[in-house]
């Protein structure tokens, strides 16, 4: 099973935003990825982080992985996946394509975790400081 932790971070003072992903594949290898993004708020950043995590899962699927556990400290993301819907129009532009791709993965689920357990929190904050 692949564990995919994802997080978005926004620095409102200067509009910097980044995504961090911490992934452990089924062999225990760790993959960390960061992306600079454009986001007006933390919710937008979290949904963009979900999309980037799904993209990584697709890469790993092509390498033979088949079970994906996505982990997030965003209740908004976990509820949107559970409901298969995001009602906020600004969020839909990120959620809809991410969920469509997520739903094509053979076995995937999203689990809400506390921020203190989100290994991607550090990765996202480090990315924010690098950019």
From TrEMBL:
Cross-referenced InterPro entries: RNaseH-like_sf, RNaseH_domain, RNaseH_sf
UniProt protein name: Ribonuclease H
Record Pfam families: RVT_3
Organism (species): Exiguobacterium undae
High-level lineage: Bacteria, Bacillati, Bacillota, Bacilli, Bacillales
Source domain of life: Bacteria
Location of the RNase H type-1 domain: 6-126
């Amino acid at each position: 099973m692949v564990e995919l932790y994802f997080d978005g971070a926004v620095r409102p003072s200067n509009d910097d935003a980044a995504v961090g992903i911490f992934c452990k594949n089924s062999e225990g290898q760790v993959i960390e990825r960061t992306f600079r993004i454009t986001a007006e708020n933390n919710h937008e950043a979290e949904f963009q982080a979900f999309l980037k995590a799904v993209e990584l899962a697709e890469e790993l699927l092509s390498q033979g992985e088949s079970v994906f556990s996505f982990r997030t400290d965003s209740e908004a993301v976990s509820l949107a996946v559970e409901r298969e819907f995001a009602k906020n129009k600004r969020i839909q532009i990120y959620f809809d394509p991410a969920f469509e791709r997520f739903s094509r993965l053979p076995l995937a689920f999203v689990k809400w975790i506390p921020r203190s357990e989100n290994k991607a929190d550090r990765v996202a904050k480090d990315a924010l400081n690098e950019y």
